[in-house]
Amino acid sequence: MGELTKLRAAPAAKAKRAAPVRKEDLPLGKILAGDCVSAMRKLPDASVDLVFADPPYNLQLGGDLNRPDGSHVDAVTDDWDHFDSFALYDKFTRDWLIEARRVLKPDGALWVIGSYHNIYRVGAILQDLGFWILNDIVWRKTNPMPNFRGTRFTNAHETLLWCSQGEKAKYHFNYRAMKTLNDELQMRSDWVLPICSGGERLKDDTGHKAHPTQKPESLLYRVLLATTEAGDVVLDPFFGTGTTGAVAKRLGRDWIGCERESAYREVATKRIAKELPLDESALKTMQSRKNQPRVAFGAVVESGFLKPGTQVFDKKRRWIAKVRADGSIECGKVTGSIHGVGKDLQGAPSCNGWTFWHYEVDGDVKPVDAARQLYLLAVED
Amino acid sequence: MGELTKLRAAPAAKAKRAAPVRKEDLPLGKILAGDCVSAMRKLPDASVDLVFADPPYNLQLGGDLNRPDGSHVDAVTDDWDHFDSFALYDKFTRDWLIEARRVLKPDGALWVIGSYHNIYRVGAILQDLGFWILNDIVWRKTNPMPNFRGTRFTNAHETLLWCSQGEKAKYHFNYRAMKTLNDELQMRSDWVLPICSGGERLKDDTGHKAHPTQKPESLLYRVLLATTEAGDVVLDPFFGTGTTGAVAKRLGRDWIGCERESAYREVATKRIAKELPLDESALKTMQSRKNQPRVAFGAVVESGFLKPGTQVFDKKRRWIAKVRADGSIECGKVTGSIHGVGKDLQGAPSCNGWTFWHYEVDGDVKPVDAARQLYLLAVED
DNA sequence: GAAGGCAGTGAATCTGAAC
DNA sequence: TGTTCAGATTCACTGCCTT
């Protein structure tokens, strides 16, 4: 971070006190061709209310990857995602962030989405440039791709950074709208949303996905609803197939896109043309209810509501097993989950371990489900 | 990031080919006083299996920042100077990460926990030093503090980074134990755990919380269970009230702490003294089949668990092959190992013959893996 | 028509021991 | 150092086809 630190923050658009930009002078509803830095240079200072950016993640993939069933994973191998070094990626990032900063109004905001491959570099650089992080948001995917080789944790989330122009800068946050959207609870920094698939996923003529990393509209929906007003101008420097434009149009926001690839520009143009502004009542029904958390037996053990080493047994005490540290149980040579061991011992097709296994508390015998209820109570506070 | 990028990874402890460090020469179960950089300097190269670090987050919170030598940095909270404090924080971060890297074994791993105030700086710096991010983990708090002023999203998570020593470095991951802990589904990168409160939260004599940022034991439990083995040495450079030590002791891991504040050291010492290790059988976890001894198909045939001449077939009976005396199989003109024949017949990139091929026993159809399990049971006794 | 089986797929830094 | 090959490894959801 050395060099950057010396730069100090460009004072951003703050210094410009010229006449405010007229919306008529902006290329609203247009997708600018070329790389985003050149494209943004055509825009005046302090002219947009929000920048939403989904830059390349700089994934550094090894060889091919196959699923356990032998099928091939269609990975992101496009040239635009490849950088030879962190240094080059950092320069690329700095360049587009500087332009984004110039183009943003003093009370404008920046959103960037990324994964662990790039988001720590992006985050450090935007802080160096003077952006002020308001929240980091975790998009928790309901249906991520599994880790097929069993080598790491399933990479089940991506991260968004929401920033103002500086520590003292103003910004817009529709607190009430977010709270309403979230069943009258404050909207949290973790958002549970499915990935983009099914009918929403755009296909090319051959039926292949039109873009490798299309984002779900629900994500943009929440971003725009939370941090813009109707009539605001939203700029997306990495427009892709135009999710930002489509949702902006639906929500009555103006938009400007930048996109290098003509194929993506064409798909986006057609897509947005079909989009219609949504009426208010439809907006309200788009949010899904919060889903009941599943509780893993391991989580109950981990949290101490049932200690490793505890003996558990079925109601008739035909079998006695011992709880192990990882939430597996052991009964003689049979080990596994509470469900699997109960099933195998009984020779049954299935078994609900929560009600099958019991333990003793102060002389009482209780199903292990009682420990789950204690866990849920503690977690709910 | 300029300067750092040029540094590139110190080759870490890899270069050291000296005699492996003996555990007797390490200050196991001790809390080293002083700042963590000086304390870590007393430890030999390549001597610990895991570093878990919960460094100070205090960037924008009023200048409560300390240099590695323990001296206090004067508060610099005006926005003119906040880059100076970023630079100081970066230097502090780099210093302790470099020592952590030296002390870690080549196949050791690093965990760091942080919030959006510091984690982007930490992440970029550790990448610059050559650490390789394996996952970023989101600790999703079930009971976070609300945002009282309604100005932002409720900050409901913290981030952990899990890193190996480098892109090609080895590391340990107890995949099966994690899958078991999560009810037979892969453990994801988002962990839902309550914050530390209630009886677990340590209090001082006045009933005030003993430490402002005490982490829940469940968090450390999962970290240590996932990425260490019993007997491993865990180092925590920011020991605080010793959550890492307490959980390490419980799980049969050795630990070393560093802590500047004597008050925290005292609380931690008492706390850990009370902790009891789990007995060995409770510590057993589900093992990956990768760790099981390799069994040649020929050995299973040789031992009579699958007789030469037996017909084996895939689940849909598209192909039928015959087992030969040497453990090869024959399907028409295709002959070879169970894996190779399965692969060639399907035209697949690879094939696990143990689960692909089946045989009949008493009218039941079983994968040939069942014969391997019988063989393993017989051999174990 | 309903239900169930089967195939396909998504921002993925995805093996390692033996020779 | 590189090459070979045994063999370990997946979750949620969509959509088409069969029963």
TrEMBL record, chains A, B:
<keyword id="KW-0238">DNA-binding</keyword>
<protein>
    <recommendedName>
        <fullName>Methyltransferase</fullName>
        <ecNumber>2.1.1.-</ecNumber>
    </recommendedName>
</protein>
<dbReference type="GO" id="GO:0003677">
    <property type="term" value="F:DNA binding"/>
</dbReference>
<feature type="domain" description="RAMA">
    <location>
        <begin position="279"/>
        <end position="377"/>
    </location>
</feature>
<comment type="similarity">
    <text>Belongs to the N(4)/N(6)-methyltransferase family.</text>
</comment>
<dbReference type="InterPro" id="IPR029063">
    <property type="entry name" value="SAM-dependent_MTases_sf"/>
</dbReference>
<dbReference type="InterPro" id="IPR001091">
    <property type="entry name" value="RM_Methyltransferase"/>
</dbReference>
<dbReference type="GO" id="GO:0006260">
    <property type="term" value="P:DNA replication"/>
</dbReference>
<keyword id="KW-0235">DNA replication</keyword>
<dbReference type="GO" id="GO:0008170">
    <property type="term" value="F:N-methyltransferase activity"/>
</dbReference>
<dbReference type="GO" id="GO:0032259">
    <property type="term" value="P:methylation"/>
</dbReference>
<dbReference type="GO" id="GO:0009007">
    <property type="term" value="F:site-specific DNA-methyltransferase (adenine-specific) activity"/>
</dbReference>
<feature type="domain" description="DNA methylase N-4/N-6">
    <location>
        <begin position="48"/>
        <end position="269"/>
    </location>
</feature>
<keyword id="KW-0489">Methyltransferase</keyword>
<dbReference type="GO" id="GO:0005737">
    <property type="term" value="C:cytoplasm"/>
</dbReference>
<dbReference type="Pfam" id="PF01555">
    <property type="entry name" value="N6_N4_Mtase"/>
</dbReference>
<dbReference type="InterPro" id="IPR002941">
    <property type="entry name" value="DNA_methylase_N4/N6"/>
</dbReference>
<keyword id="KW-0808">Transferase</keyword>
<dbReference type="Pfam" id="PF18755">
    <property type="entry name" value="RAMA"/>
</dbReference>
<dbReference type="InterPro" id="IPR040843">
    <property type="entry name" value="RAMA"/>
</dbReference>
<keyword id="KW-0949">S-adenosyl-L-methionine</keyword>
<dbReference type="InterPro" id="IPR002052">
    <property type="entry name" value="DNA_methylase_N6_adenine_CS"/>
</dbReference>
